[in-house]
């Protein structure tokens, strides 16, 4: 059945408070503006019921297609999208096998490269702050960390691995505990906000960053370049991700078939001033 065009694209974000989602949204908005399409923005705020309700509302002919940023995406919502035949592209899905067009970043190689950077600087006691455990990307990034350590002949000390939500406060709190109890010389964090919290935790404990303690993040949010010291981090091309997902959705709306259901974009290690060679006392 052919849908009547509404000239409007729906977007459902996990929330509208994180810089991560806002950078992706900016890319979406720029791409749709160049295509002369309007954008209707909603947020689920981690609420699966609200997310499904928003999809039900939008599928009543309100929009021509939907973009979803890091959605909860329970099976009932997936089935609704498919049943309504509503064109949809998922950006950063919580699980990678979701049966819908989806766009992710190369989480594995990004985190592996970040860890190798610290190893090349002479760090061997490296702590790791995992992200939220219900995200498959959390496990993929940790695998990159583990493999980098293993290939360098280093053992991952499970006592220096901790789960954390993607917040500054959790990064500060958890890094404080890890540094106090286990004395790592560096931390790799699964998100920039956690990494920024870790930098301030190290400072609060009397350590200088980076001469005494190194920190690497993951995202390259605007705050990463504005902090002092600037945060070494893995850049996710968030703006480009928004643009690419929007282009894919417009193709689906036009009835075109995507070359790949799973689109993946690369990452880049951005070197700033939060990392330095391990001090002599820390080297093996």
Instruction: Determine the fraction of residues in helical runs and give it as a percent range.
Output: 40-55%
How many β strands by DSSP?
12
User: Using only CA atoms, what is the Rg?
Assistant: 20 Å
Distance between the termini: 67 Å
Please state roughly what percent of the residues sit in beta strands, choosing from under 5%, 5-15%, 15-25%, 25-35%, 35-45% or over 45%.
15-25%
User: SS-based structural class?
Assistant: alpha/beta
The largest pleated sheet is described as: 6 strands, parallel
The outline comes out as elongated
Q: Total number of helical segments? A: 9
Order the strands across the largest sheet as they lie in space: 2-1-3-4-5-11
Average pLDDT confidence is 93
Low-confidence runs of at least 5 consecutive residues: none
Run of helices and strands = EHEHEHEEHEHEHEHEHEHEE
Structure overview:
The protein has 284 residues and is an alpha/beta fold. It contains 9 helices and 12 strands. It has helices spanning 19-34, 48-58, 75-83, 107-120, 136-151, 168-182, 192-204, 222-226, 238-253, and strands spanning 8-13, 38-43, 65-69, 88-91, 102-105, 126-130, 161-163, 186-189, 214-219, 232-235, 262-265, 268-270. A 6-stranded parallel beta sheet has the order 2-1-3-4-5-11, sandwiched between helices. The chain starts with 7 loop residues before the first strand and ends in a 14-residue tail after the last strand. The mean pLDDT is 93.
